[in-house]
Design a protein that fits this description.
Layout: H1 2-7, H2 9-24, H3 34-57, H4 64-91, H5 98-111, H6 116-131, H7 138-147, H8 171-182, E1 198-202, H9 209-217, H10 220-225, E2 228-235, H11 240-252, H12 262-273, E3 278-285, H13 290-296, H14 298-303, E4 309-314, H15 317-322, E5 327-330, H16 336-348, H17 358-370, H18 375-385, H19 390-398, H20 406-415, H21 419-427, H22 440-450, H23 464-477, E6 481-483, E7 491-493
Parallel strand pairs: 1-4, 1-5, 2-3, 3-4
Antiparallel strand pairs: 6-7
Helix pairs in contact: 2-3, 2-4, 3-7, 4-6, 8-9, 11-12, 11-13, 16-18, 17-19, 18-20, 22-23
């Protein structure tokens, strides 16, 4: 994970250098000679940008200490520049209320001794000093420029719709679980402590538990059988209060009122569930505390109508035994043909598509062998290979060791993103695992814009908002985001970073 975090330094720092090159240098005015300005603009900053390009596209270990030092200096320069721009903007205000003028006067007393140009110059000089050590990385830059077509895709990829998430090789398990959910013969005994039957799907990370649960949740037989369906992502920290709020929001399709008292919250949930036959799906449960689990289920056990059900997904069989699950289903390794179908679906868009190029077909089969039958790896790698040339597939096969485990395959997929998409997706690590974007424009796009991550040419007629949405759609098409059909147009992200 540290390796992934360090590889993100380049993508995050690059926009800062765009800002410094375009905005900071003109502020020096007469305080910098023409020769110094030319040296900064034409030599120092381009050199730094060239190495950052390598850092964005490839995880080069030798670059990391230098990048960390560079990041700290760049942030310092950006902070000074932002403060300087703020002061310039404030000075342009010609007519303000008297009390605002008083505040301005007070503020000037505080900041007057501080010379922004001096501070900015010192920051830039620090960057120049750091850049003095950049020549040692020149071979990396030249090798990258000349040899690495895999990570240098200049063409802007078209925004295409994300492939749907069909289930392959799990038909028998899906039908078995659906039958248990809707059958009246599966009411539990009281020995488990839960009046509502609890079913579980368990398996290793990336095995397809969530995809199978989605398919079950959207099955027409399930939709017709239950009055109310709720879907909540749980994750490692089992917070009964937060989960209950999410359940209420899943029923109401809106924001839950702020209620701090857990008993009041549970009482509200009871009122919403009265006289209803419900299905509650809890995705990614890690809880091993039976007492806490039973406490959260109190409203469901007290008011749930006969025929109500709870379905959970989890990674460990231990969770199912600790929580007293009534029926559990283990996701075994997929058959070869089923796994091949997943890869074909995401890499070619059609399971039955005929590949006329024997070389491409052989490359596809060799890559699939490397993926250790992880459905998530097949989805991510297949999406990254979609529409690529044979040469790209060859180079992917040569990275086979990285593809052998799910995390390695996910990281490889991240490496294949163009730098500006890496920046945007890296920023999404600020959100908790399983976070649902209720409004993509509000939750995601505006954050990218505010950070200066959206690149729009000055002569373009495309708005920055539209360009940002094209970034989002491209990440969606490559399966870095996943649309949840059971809750409309909301999206979630994989926990890659």
């Amino acid at each position: 994970m540290d390796q992934i975090a360090l590889s993100l330094v380049g993508p995050i720092v690059s926009p800062i250098f765009d800002k410094l090159q375009n905005a900071a240098l003109p502020y020096f005015g007469g305080d910098i000679t023409e020769e110094e300005l030319q040296h900064l603009q034409n030599t120092i900053l381009p050199k730094i940008r060239a190495v950052l390009l390598v850092a964005e596209a490839k995880n080069v270990a030798v670059l990391q200490p230098w990048l960390v030092t560079l990041k700290e200096a760049a942030y310092e320069a950006e902070d000074v520049l932002d403060m300087y721009k703020y002061q310039r903007l404030k000075a342009q205000v010609s007519s303000v209320p008297k009390f605002i003028k008083t505040l301005k006067k007070t503020a000037r007393v505080v900041v007057a001794p501080f010379s922004f140009k001096t501070a900015l110059r010192k920051s830039m000089e620090k960057l120049v000093k750091i850049a003095d050590g950049i020549d040692q990385f020149t071979p990396l830059v030249s090798n990258f420029t000349n040899q690495d077509p895999m990570n240098r895709q200049q063409k802007h990829a078209a925004s295409v719709s994300s492939p749907s998430s069909p289930v392959f090789g799990r038909d028998l398990q899906r039908d078995s679980i659906v039958n248990m959910l809707i059958s009246a013969a599966n009411e539990p005994s009281t020995s488990s402590g839960s009046r509502i039957p609890v079913l579980a799907i368990y398996g290793i990370g990336g095995a397809g538990k969530t995809t199978l649960a989605q398919s079950i949740n959207n099955d027409p037989r399930v939709v017709e059988h239950f009055d109310t369906k709720m879907w909540v992502h749980v994750s490692r920290i089992f917070d009964a209060h937060a989960i209950t709020k999410k359940i209420i929001e899943s029923i109401d399709k809106g924001e839950c009122p702020r209620v701090e008292n857990f008993d009041v919250l549970q009482s509200k949930l009871k009122d919403m569930l009265k006289s209803k036959k419900f299905l509650l799906v809890l995705d990614d449960v890690w809880c091993l505390d039976k007492e806490l689990w039973d406490q959260m289920l109190i409203p469901f056990n007290e008011v749930g109508e006969m025929g109500s059900r709870i379905l959970i997904t989890c990674r460990a069989e231990e969770v199912t035994s600790k929580l007293g699950v009534h029926h559990s289903f283990s996701l075994a390794e997929l058959e070869d043909n089923d796994y091949w179908s997943i890869f074909m679906h995401y890499s070619f868009g059609d399971v039955k598509k005929e590949i006329n190029d024997p070389q491409l077909l052989e490359l596809a089969r060799e890559i699939v062998k490397k993926l250790s039958k992880s459905p998530l790896a097949a989805r991510m790698v297949g999406s990254s290979l979609r529409g690529k040339e044979v040469e790209y597939w060859k180079q992917t096969l040569h990275r086979g060791d990285m593809l052998k485990d799910t995390l390695g395959a996910l990281y490889w997929s991240f490496e294949q993103l163009r730098p500006h998409l890496q920046r945007c997706f890296a920023l999404c690590s600020l959100y908790p695992k399983g976070y649902y974007f209720k409004n993509v424009e509000e939750d995601c796009v505006r954050l990218w814009i505010a950070q200066g991550f959206i690149e729009v040419p000055s002569n373009s007629t495309v708005t920055v908002e539209d360009e940002a949405m094209s970034y989002f759609n491209e990440l969606l098409s490559k399966s870095f985001f996943q649309r949840k059909r059971m809750i409309g147009m909301k999206c979630t992200i994989y926990c890659m970073i």
